[in-house]
């Protein structure tokens, strides 16, 4: 599958696309409304920030404890059921019966399971779109960016006109729609793996992925260079002040353009060759900030750099190709949750540098560090593209060896 017409002709992909779009819009409205509600109740910027981003913080915990379930659940039932649970949680928040601490605990508890749901959703796309995973993943990426923009704009309007509680009720309805679309649009599939899931199984699977040089290199390449550049993006407000929105818009536009171009026009067999160049592109334009460019030049640099995020598509395709089928969902879930965690780490690290040097120098340092990591991984990625790693991967159910079946 190499065209948008082909993937949208697939009924199951249409269900995944529509369900994911409704979920993203609902979650975005929920985050915004809950943040406004908490701030109005407490006047605390810290608690407001926790309400907005608190669901992202526990994803690392979910990746360490729950990801073994990603290959041991029936995808259709789990994804639809999880959306039902999310819709009920949003409806509970809309009632206003929970205290502030209860609201924060609720969204953090759901955040821990989001790492699992991301792994299940990405893994089922491999089955829904045989040979079309990259284009399908890029298409979902584009829809996520678009629905976040729509969600923020709509959420702000709803909060201003109806208040945060009614906005949360609308978020619950959108997520419930996602549950219905997912359940009716996907067909039933059996789990990829058998055996008991849990913390021990998750640790064994994660260890198996990290003990293999190829998958370990792919995960590090996916997490660290991107996380450092997200740290640079965290400096937009200190650097540009009231004009920071222009840099954020340029970054979003560049990322969407990269997903659109690479996902559609770069054939999967040659996608490997673009991983390192795209990751280098992600960092190089930020070196201009050492010269303190004006807003127009800075926005252009950010747009070009953000095109490089499309390198993640090639890395995700490698995980699909190399991870054992019984660990595919766990590998993709670990990739997603790891990227979220390293984005937070990158923002913290770059912010610390900026305290001593100022935002422009901190952005330059982040770019140099990202380039250094990309360069250090270049030979390993190239070697992995030529031959699979000769170290066995013990998934607890099967062994992946050189020349063996990758599922």
From TrEMBL:
It is found in: Cell membrane. The chain crosses the membrane at residues 21-40, 46-67, 88-113, 119-135, 142-162, 168-186, 217-237, 243-262, 297-315. Its main location: membrane. Gene3D superfamilies: MFS general substrate transporter like domains. Keywords: Cell membrane, Membrane, Transmembrane, Transmembrane helix. It comes from Asanoa iriomotensis. It is a multi-pass membrane protein. This is Membrane protein. Residues 388-407 are annotated as: Disordered. It comes from the Bacteria. InterPro entries: MFS_trans_sf (IPR036259).
């Amino acid at each position: 599958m190499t065209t948008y017409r082909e993937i949208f002709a697939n009924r199951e992909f249409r269900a995944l696309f529509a369900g994911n779009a409704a979920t993203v819009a609902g979650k975005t409205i929920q985050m915004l409304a809950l943040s406004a509600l908490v701030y109005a109740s407490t006047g605390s910027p810290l608690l407001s920030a926790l309400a907005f981003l608190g669901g992202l913080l526990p994803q690392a915990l979910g990746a360490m404890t729950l990801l073994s379930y990603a290959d041991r659940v029936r995808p259709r039932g789990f994804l639809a059921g999880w959306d039902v649970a999310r819709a009920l949680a949003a409806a509970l928040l809309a009632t206003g019966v929970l205290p502030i601490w209860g609201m924060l605990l609720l969204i953090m508890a759901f955040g821990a399971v989001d790492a699992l749901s991301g792994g299940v959703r990405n893994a089922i796309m491999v089955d829904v779109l045989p040979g079309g995973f990259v284009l399908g993943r890029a298409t979902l990426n584009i829809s996520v960016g678009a629905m976040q923009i729509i969600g923020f704009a709509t959420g702000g309007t709803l909060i201003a006109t109806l208040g945060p509680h009614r906005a949360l009720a609308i978020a619950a309805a959108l997520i419930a729609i996602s549950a219905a679309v997912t359940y009716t649009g996907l067909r039933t599939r059996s789990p990829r793996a058998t055996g008991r899931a849990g913390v021990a199984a998750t640790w064994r699977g994660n260890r198996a992925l990290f003990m293999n040089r190829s998958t370990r290199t792919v995960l590090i390449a996916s997490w660290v260079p991107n996380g450092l550049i997200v740290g640079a993006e965290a400096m937009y407000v200190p650097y540009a002040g009231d004009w920071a929105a222009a840099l954020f818009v340029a970054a979003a536009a560049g990322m969407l353009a990269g997903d659109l171009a690479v996902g559609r026009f770069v054939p999967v067999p040659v996608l490997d060759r673009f991983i390192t160049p795209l990751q280098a592109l992600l960092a190089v334009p930020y070196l201009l900030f050492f010269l303190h460019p004006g807003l127009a030049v800075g926005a252009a640099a950010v747009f070009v750099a953000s095109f490089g995020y499309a390198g993640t598509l090639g890395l995700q395709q490698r995980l699909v190709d190399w991870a054992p089928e019984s660990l595919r969902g766990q590998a993709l879930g670990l990739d997603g949750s790891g990227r979220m965690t390293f984005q937070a780490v990158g923002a913290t690290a770059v912010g610390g540098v900026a305290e001593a040097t100022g935002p422009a120098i901190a952005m330059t340092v982040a770019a140099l560090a990202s380039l250094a990591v990309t360069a250090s991984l270049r030979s390993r990625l190239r070697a992995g593209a030529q031959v699979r790693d000769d170290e066995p991967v013990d998934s607890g159910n099967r062994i992946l060896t050189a020349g063996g079946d990758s599922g």
